[in-house]
DNA sequence: GCACCTTTGTGCACGCGTTCACAAAGGCAT
DNA sequence: ATGCCTTTGTGAACGCGTGCACAAAGGTGC
């Protein structure tokens, strides 16, 4: 399948925008669902709706991959699944190690979505000697002393860190030293990594805090709206900190 | 931007950019660490380094909150901790429900970082009757039939969904119907929610796929570079995209 | 073959976020 | 006080991502 294998000067990099890359897995999931229902083709409008994005954005995203659609018809589901999988590098096998087999590490090891698409948990690693040898999700836990040899013999390039925050940086350095160049970090720590190593972080606490911010804003908005409509009303106790009225919210600059 | 610009309280709450809000928890964590070490003040350069961001960005972020720094000195750690906490709404208590007590749900229930900052697991909910009554992380699991009353009696406005993908949308609708307006979704599903409801998603599989993309790109680059220097190997698979600095800083989730 | 209808692919403009660079502001030494 | 040194706060430029709107392209029916 010659997919536009143009050997043009690579100077003008046909690099796919990061934002697009982040959406490709979303499209892929929606397409896989369609594929399982044996839907042959799909329009940008339908697919965009399923993926929760705007159709123009989806078409632009696909345009970075090439012209895989047929005007007047839409996209061939199977073909698109293949193209996106290939672009994301999912046609090959990615051995992954999970370091830190606590509650979260064990949950990830058991997570089905892991193996579903090219990813394979090659090893579980923990620093606790009493964990060594135990089976989690059918995989034996190995001691962190052997981290380097495990990474090396399995050809691991992607590591998942689910250790406590204090251990994360050290584990990260050992992973990188052993040859890992992509890290998915669940520990509440900002990892310092050398050039060329990709880090993505998943932080529960941060997500909740962002939600709390919006939640607070919504509450404040409701209150002030109610206040506008009926300037009367019982003073809401509010734990001592008045946050909503319109005073003391934006610091520094006090509106008259 | 001179002072005396934002005088209109109407849309004032739109003040803080979303990107800034997403970084505030990061700053807060770094500041908390400094606070525990009794560091009195910190410069934008130091704090930025600790949070893994650029110092100019940090200063601009803080400028949205107000002028809390002292020129020539830096920022007062304790004061900044308080201001950011207040801005994020962490000075109040946020009851949270977790729906779907499988491996992941249980891991989250046990996660310490939860309670650390204003968040409290008010209830665990699962659809499996055999789970009902069991204790997870010291909290009894309740049946999903009682979802609405649980949300109502606890005044829950934030829900965490850790169900299988197939159940997520339905659970989401029930949560929203019961009054939840912020949802943290771990299920591999695009949730459809009405206006006014915030959804943030955390998707393991997507994160890994994004890493795989970059990993593949790095591998292709290495190959083509080696190929340039000494074209003696086998044919390069092609697919090596252009250069693009690794960022490793894109948050794991996207705002809804 | 031709006209019509549908849907893609994209040029363009706009807005947000990032980064640079520097003037203003505060502290400190003299 | 005064001048120097440090660091903040922010105007301005830039780049990326998004969404609109439409021409081009392919299929279909007559």
UniProtKB/TrEMBL annotation, chains A, B:
Keywords: Cytoplasm, DNA-binding, NAD, Repressor, Transcription, Transcription regulation. Residues 220-256 are annotated as: Disordered. Residues 89-190 form the CoA-binding domain. Pfam families: CoA_binding, Put_DNA-bind_N. NCBIfam families: PRK05472.1-3 (NF003989), PRK05472.2-1 (NF003992), PRK05472.2-2 (NF003993), PRK05472.2-3 (NF003994), PRK05472.2-4 (NF003995), PRK05472.2-5 (NF003996). Modulates transcription in response to changes in cellular NADH/NAD(+) redox state. This is Redox-sensing transcriptional repressor Rex. It comes from Streptomyces boetiae. The gene is rex.
